[in-house]
Task: structure prediction
Amino acid sequence: MHAMQYGLTLPGDYDMDIVRSRVARVGHLLDDWDGLGLKAYLLRERGVHGSPVNQYAPFYLWNTVEGMNRFLWGGAFQGLVNDFGRPEVSQWTGLAHEEGGAAGSPVAVAVRRRQRIAEGGELAAVMEDAVGETRRLAGEDGAVLAAAAVDPHSWELVHFSLWDHESPKAEGDVFQVLHLSAPGRDGLPRGRQW
Result:
C-alpha cells in the first residue's frame, strides 16, 4: 500500500463551490481506476471544522505503484495541473490499514494527522505504535477505515481515517469528503504491512 496526497491552498475568499462543481463533474473518472485502493476527494473550508484555510487536498491509498504512476504520468493528473498549477505531491509507504465498524456507511469527513518522528527513537517501536493507533482509530464508533504510512526521507508519519459522522474521535485536520472513489478498496492489505 502507498499513500499519496497533494494540497491546493486557495485564497480566503475563493468560491469553494468551484471545487465542489469540479469534483461533481470529474470525481467519477477514478471510480474504476486500476491499481487505486481509494481516493478521498477532500475539502477544507476556512472556518469549518476549525480550518484556517480553504484547501482542496485529495488523499489516495494505492494498491500498486503502476496505478499511481499511470495516474501521475498518464494524463489524469495533468488536468488538475492545467487548472491549478503543479502541486507538491507527498508520498508515504504503507504501515497499516484497518476497516472500521462503519465500513459500509457513507463517508462524511476524513481526518489527517502528520507528525515528525523524533530523533533517537527506536524505529520498530514507533512503527508498532502507528499500527496500534490505526487499530484504535478503526475501533472507534463511526470509523469507516484507518490507515498509517511513513515517509522515511523526511521521517514523517501520516495517520488517515474516514468517518460516517462529523464528530470523529481522531486528532488532526478535518476535511469534508466530497466523493470517494474506491475501486480497489477490498484489495488494500489489512493490518500491519511488514
